[in-house]
Amino acid sequence: MPAKIPLILLPGLLCDAALWQYQMTALAEFAEPAVADLTGAASIPAMADAVLAAAPPRFALAGLSMGGYVALEILRRAPGRVSRLALLDTSARADTDEMRERRRGLIELAQLGRFKGVTPRLLPLLLHPDHLVEPFTGIVTGMAERVGRAGFLRQETAILGRIDSRASLAAITVPTLVICGDADALTPPALAREIAGGIAGARLVLIEGAGHLTPLEQPEAVNRAMIEWLGDDF
Asked: In angstroms, rounded to a whole number, what is the distance separating the alpha carbons of residues 71 and 75?
């Protein structure tokens, strides 16, 4: 029986291993999944370096949202170590001026001690309207509480300083899967199409009935796509 593929899963902003809980179980038959901790560094390059330092020599890599930014940085730093790539609900673009201003405001509030995690007002940006109920809302708010204020400050600072990755997409030559919720309000399908269009041979999968957190909202559909991706060969 062939050896299982090491698979590193990268969470998004204010997310932890709970984001990938269903994939950790479903993909264990095909891979050796592990969720990286992205709470300890304040820049995307530093996050990428931390992942690479702990990773096996060669591995499959999947990242959601902020985790996608880190995944693209890892491909720039160590392309020979990544055997295949999955980018979920993310963007290859840098922040717009408006987005940067909003992030600076959130950082300032958190520095003043007014960190509230994921509030009910923010949940509709993350979840499909059908999922604004338990257990989804509890999982999302619980992840944010565990990441905490200090982790949030580091992550927002890292996202604020990230570069535009569109120019580097063409250099990616590994089997690539791009996933996006069809109702993703933060990184809509147009951004997923842009990524898939920039990577030769990339496969785009839009997940029906999902917002920004596809692995949590529609795990069976995400699992099917990722199982097929793990078996892909160029």
From this structure: 6
Overall domain count for the chain: 1
Tell me what the pLDDT averaged over the chain comes to.
95
Bridge pairing between strands 59-64 and 31-35: unpaired
pLDDT at 131 over 90: yes
Buried b or exposed e, range 156-193, using 16+ CB within 10 angstroms: bbbbbebbebeebbeebebbbbbbbbbbbebbbbebbe
CA atoms of 214 and 8, how far apart (whole Å): 17
List the CATH number of the domain containing 15.
Answer: 3.40.50.1820
- CA–CA dist 174, 83 (Å, integer): 6
207 inside domain: yes
The model's pLDDT over 59-79, given as tens digits with 9 standing for 90+, comes to: 999 999 999 999 999 999 999
